[in-house]
Amino acid sequence: MEILEKVKAIKNQEISAVENLENFIDTIKKKNPKINAFIEIDEEGARKTAEEIDKKIARGEKTGKLAGLVIAIKSNINVEGFTVSAGSKTLENYVSGYDATVIKRIKNEDGIIIGMTNMDEFACGSSTETSYYGPTDNPSAPGYIPGGSSGGSAAAIAADMCDIALGSDTGGSIRNPAACCGVIGFKPTYGFVSRYGLIDLAMSLDQIGPFANDVTGISLMLDTIVGYDPADPTTMKIKPSFTNNLEGNIENMKVGIVKEFQEVSQDSIVKVVNDIVSELDAHGVEIQELKFDYIDLVLPTYYLINFVEFFSATRKYDGRKYGYRIEEVCGEEVLRRIQIGSYISQKEYSGKYYRRALQARSLIRKEFMKLLKDVDIIIGPTLPKLPHKIGTEIEPLEMYKYDILTCLTNLVGIPAASVDVGKIKNIPVGVQIQAKACEDYKVLQAAHAIKKLIT
What range(s) does the Amidase domain occupy (predicted)? Predict the structure, then answer.
């Protein structure tokens, strides 16, 4: 049953919100000890919310668009009463006293928040192995990483522990785990979703977005969380409707394929992507081959900006107001980023590194927007390689390479999704769909059409 159908069934009293919740609680109790997708759950609070929703429905009162759906939240998004640790010992004792804007909007639409999901520490990672709470397993490929940094949220969806999950995406942290776990993950246009209440990794890159097993779940959550927020000056005064625009005519779309995206990816992944492109071509979609000459600039530009902005964001974790001093308790990857960020933030180096990275970002944005000018969407691999086994020793630069195809989206500020399209040796593979800024609906339409083609 698709998410949209489930909401209708709950509102029509064919199933109750309590029944929906209890099914997920049972699944969490059975699967989470091994998978470690959730750090914390609140059965009592969730039951109370579900009971209230069922009572409202029984009385014939109006209910929200998420009525009775069970939602998981990445542990770097503030939810009142929950431990919001960002996967770090630094904040292991921080219990949030407020709701992030996205959480307020979920609650206003009668979503049921079940708990907080595991993640790479402070979102620094691509595998959910750097969490203070231990790694998360991949339900769709046991023993392999679930991707990161929002690996707990992706795993919760893949293991049928909730209806929808929220993650945050700085350079692929939603789309990477979506691809690894075989689910759908969506990164909105920068400024579409409020970041108020998010523990930032890099403020100029971060966006909150949803995971689900079907496109209607993604669209319903976007309908809920997208919109202007005076608490976040980066948000746009725009309120598009996503669920009502899923059935677009993809045959009229122009689809771009970037040669360099395929050249940096494993052949087996490229074949899966090309099979999807062939299906679209067979259905009359116009395919255009594109060339992007700046692929080698993408990773260094992204990480230089990431390191500096992360270093700046962590200066508040000094152990005075709350938590511990971050440098004293954090893991190796977090410390590495703080140290590099500190180094390149120094006055004598900022021109050599950070300012040049900002210049490179402007160039990348300009050139990539040229590619998008004559097409509606670009389709390519989400990840250049298959996920590794949990615990494999990998050099930092090798780990960073997971981001080469996803971080471009964040540098440019455009929307993108990863859609599960198959498996290689029983490991899920995702296709990434990108579009122009504010044309998030085209990404959803393409994702919806692709899912129909392959099922």
Answer: 19-444
Query: What is the distance in angstroms between the CA of the first residue and the CA of the last residue of the chain?
Result: 14
Kindly name the residue from 140, 149, 168, 265 that is annotated as catalytic: 149
- What does the angle CA 46 – CA 103 – CA 409 come to, to the nearest 5 degrees? 130
What range does the domain containing 1 cover? 1-455
Cβ–Cβ under 8 Å, residues 251 and 280 = no
Rounded Cα–Cα distance for residues 100 and 290 (Å): 40
Residue of 85, 140, 168, 173 marked active site = 173
Element containing residue 389 per DSSP (H, E)? none
CA nearest to 131, candidates 29, 37, 208? 37
Contacts of 399 (CB under 8 A, 6+ apart): 125, 126, 127
Q: Does 345 sit behind a cis peptide bond, omega within 30 degrees of 0 on the bond before it?
A: no
d(CA 191, CA 296): 27
Known catalytic membership, residue 149: yes
CB atoms within 10 A of CB 59: 7
Which tens digits make up the pLDDT trace of 270-328?
999 999 999 999 999 999 999 999 999 999 999 999 999 999 999 999 999 889 999 99
Residues 297/363, Cβ–Cβ less than 8 Å: yes
pLDDT tens digits, residue range 318-355?
A: 999 889 999 999 999 999 999 999 999 887 777 788 89
Tokens of 367: 């050139």
Length of the chain: 455
Q: Is the pTM of this model over 0.85?
A: yes
Judge contact between 188 and 415, C-beta under 8 A. Answer: yes
Any catalytic annotation for residue 237? no
Q: Report percent pLDDT > 70 for the chain.
A: 100
Q: How many domains does the chain have?
A: 1
From the list 6, 11, 31, 74, the catalytic residue is 74
Which CATH number belongs to the domain containing residue 411 in this structure?
3.90.1300.10
362 noted as active-site residue: no
